[in-house]
Each structure stands twice: as structure tokens, then as C-alpha cells.
Automatic annotation (TrEMBL):
InterPro entries membership: Aldolase_TIM, DUS-like_FMN-bd, tRNA_hU_synthase_CS
EC number(s) from the headed UniProt entry: 1.3.1.88
Residue segments, region Disordered: 1-22, 421-447
Source species of the chain: Seminavis robusta
Name of this protein: tRNA-dihydrouridine(16/17) synthase [NAD(P)(+)]
The DUS-like FMN-binding domain, residue ranges: 59-354
Amino acid sequence: MTATTSATAATATDGDQAPTTTCDDTLDFQPALPVDRDWIKKLILEHSSNPCNGKGLVVAPMVDQSDYPFRLLCRRYGANVSFTPMMNAGLLVRQQSYKEKFLPRQQHANDRPLIAQLAGHDPLILEQAAKLLLPYVDGIDLNCGCPQGIAKRGFYGAFLLEDEQVLLKCVKHLVKTISKPVTVKVRVLPEGDDASLRLYHKLANCGIHLLTIHGRTRHQLHVQTGKADWNIIQRTVQELGHRIPIFANGNIGSYDDVQRCLDETGVDGVMSSEALLEYPALFDATAMRMGRIQMAKEYLLLAKQYPPQIGHQGSGIKCLKAHIHRFLHPDLESAFNSTDHILRQRVAQAADWQVLWDTVEFIEQKQKQEEHKVEEEELSWYMRHRITVTDAHGNLMTALELKALSDTGAKLAPKYLEDHCGDDEQDPADMGHSLFTAGGGDDDGDY
Ligand SMILES: Cc1cc2nc3c(=O)[nH]c(=O)nc-3n(C[C@H](O)[C@H](O)[C@H](O)COP(=O)(O)O)c2cc1C
């Protein structure tokens, strides 16, 4: 695989844009691990069967969806860096069952580099949680992207970005006390690019080892997801790329997008979430399309071997059902006819692995009867908030909204756009998996 990078974007100091803040890169404290600009590249080259010139092809942190068996499947098809699902630092420190779910028994040689993601706002709790994870991972990430109600109430994720004092205190404390790389995943600030860049400089000045930028603000969620902005990512690479590696997140729906993103922004890696959930072979450079049935079966077999619970970082059957729904979204959603409706119910109500396996085999038979062509498969789950259609009254809405209206006959209530409630000590994976409702709820990918 080749991954080209445009010289202009990659040469951070050559940018004709003046730095947004003065670059004070002297730390006023002793970091536990000084920044080695190429640390992630070195790990990729050392551990991955798909080195991609040291460029990261990254499985995003995903609550209840970047479980170990899913990460293995993505790595089988080209991914070379993974993030764990976000873990609530307070729960990890205090709750035995939470520890059991998330702490692996061992560091898996076939799952490296792996970065564990934490959510929280208390420096000491974050430190304690990070130290529990350290033996099993290559780095610790702080979630500064989750825009959900649960993050607002728990004061973490994207809301931490808006309280600079607390944010920088947490980051500095982690950098000071954690002996492995500390990374931060951010969104763009609602105030705009310049304010965002100023904050990213401050994060770099705290000694972080890598920054992942999801090029959307926290207001871009659900039906308002829209396009991610790569310009801010490219500007950040120009201003900070010579000091720390930067990953881009957003707008990745195909391998061409991966290449384009690397070329246009000059980043060190490209992170994907929703498209990868639907098509785990997204990072595979070979032109051959893998069938969604094949993806579903391979995942189920891995999940049988490494159940996504106790140490494998998912919530059991709930996690499996969500994966199957995403792999087979077109089969489960198409045409709204009675057979598909029954299939959706079957997945939604599945109590064990075997029901899911049988359903996948049933769909496989159905595809054969319909002379389904794998090479014609396209992403459908990823596109649900990105394709707009016009309803009978000329209103512009996403395909998902239109489907909701036709399913229920009711207008979409404003509630649809509201956050679900939750508290600081709630496992985000326990927020209702309303995958089979039109709105999708908190598990709709808006983290
Ligand atoms: C099911 C799901 C769970 C997610 N959980 C997390 C999470 O735990 N931590 C996080 O930082 N982002 C989380 N996200 C957001 C993704 O990491 C990513 O930033 C976002 O989906 C945009 O990337 P995409 O355009 O490739 O989907 C989640 C997304 C989805 C779809």
C-alpha cells in the first residue's frame, strides 16, 4: 500500500499561514515521557502487517463498538492502530464489574498499537484509571469530543473543551504522571477555527503526544451531522505537525477518501468510525469488495472466540446486535416490507449468538435468491445523515427523517434532537441502544 502526502501539507513550518498563537513549547513541569515526534509511526512499523509507510489507518474509539473482536476484524483488513471504547474514569476506578468488562487479561500482541480512551474531568481519577490500563495499551487518550447529554451532565467530552482551565489541568496532570503517550481527541470549537487552533496549541504546549481532530463541532450531531471540515485539520498540521503527530477524523467513507485526506491535510493518520462499522475492510487497499455477509460472519466468529464482555470491552449480546445491524443495514432496512421487518425484529430481540448467526445465514440465502452482487454493495448506514431528500411538501430532510415520518406517520418531535439524560457515573454503553428506531438515540454515533 502506498500513502502519499502532499509536500505542502506535510511541511509544517513551510505553511504561509502565520501561527495562531505564539508557540511556547517549553514545559513548566517534567513530563513522564518527553514527546518523540515519530512514536506512533515507529509502533505502526514495528507491529502492523500493514505498515502503510507509518501512516495510521485508525479504528476510532466507539462506545460498545470498538470491542476487541471488532478491532481484530478491522486489523485483518488493513487497520493498523485502534482505540478502545471510551471508558468512564470514575467507574473504572471504583466499580469492580466495570473493571472486569474493560481491563484485558493481557496485552494482545495482535492488537497493537492500541490506545485506551478515558472520559472524565478529575485529574487524580484520570491518573488512577490510566494507571490501571497502562500494562495493556500503548497510550492513553482523553475524550474531548463526546457531545451527548451524558457528557454534559458528567462534564467530560466536548464540554471539557469549553472549560480550558479544567481541560489543561487534566492534560498536564496526565502528561506529568503517565509513562506512556498521552493523546487527546477533540472536536472543532463552536467559536470557530481560530479559537480551536489556539486551544490545540495550548494542548501541544502541555506536552501531549498526539492530537486527533474530529472536524465537526459538538453541534454537528444526529441529522445535523453534515460534512467534517478538513481545512482546520490541515491548518493544525501546518502549525503543529512538526511537534506532534495528528490524526484526522470525519468524512471517511472509502479508501479513496483515506488517500485524499492524507494528501490534502498531511496528517499522520486517518481515523474512521461509522463507515468502518459498516465496512470493516475500508482500509484494505485492494480493489476487491468484501461482502457484508462475509464481514458479519467473520465478526461473529471472532466474537464467539473473544466474547465482547469480560475483558473484551463490549456489553455482550447488545454489542453483537449493534454490529450486525450496521453490517447488514441495507438488508435490514430495505424496502420496509414484511420480511425485512421480521428480520429487524429478529436481530433486535436476539438473546444469543446463535440467533444472530442463523439470521445472517437466512439473509445470505435471500441474497443468493435475489442474485445479489457483492461488488455493487455501497455504504448505507454511514450515509443516513449525509444524503438529503425532499419530502412531498418540498422540505429538505435526511433519508432517515423521511423514513421516520413514513414509518410512524407522525412528525419528528423536537425531542428527536435532544440529548438523552444520564449521569456522571453511567456507563455510556448502557444508554439505550435504540438502534432499531428511526432516531437512533444516544447510540447514533454522535460522540
Ligand atoms: C457507535 C459509536 C460510538 C462512538 N463512541 C465514541 C467514543 O467512545 N469516544 C469517542 O471519542 N468518539 C466516539 N464516537 C465518535 C467517533 O469516534 C467519531 O469521532 C465520529 O463517528 C466521526 O467519525 P466518522 O465520520 O468516521 O463516523 C462514536 C461513534 C459511534 C458511531
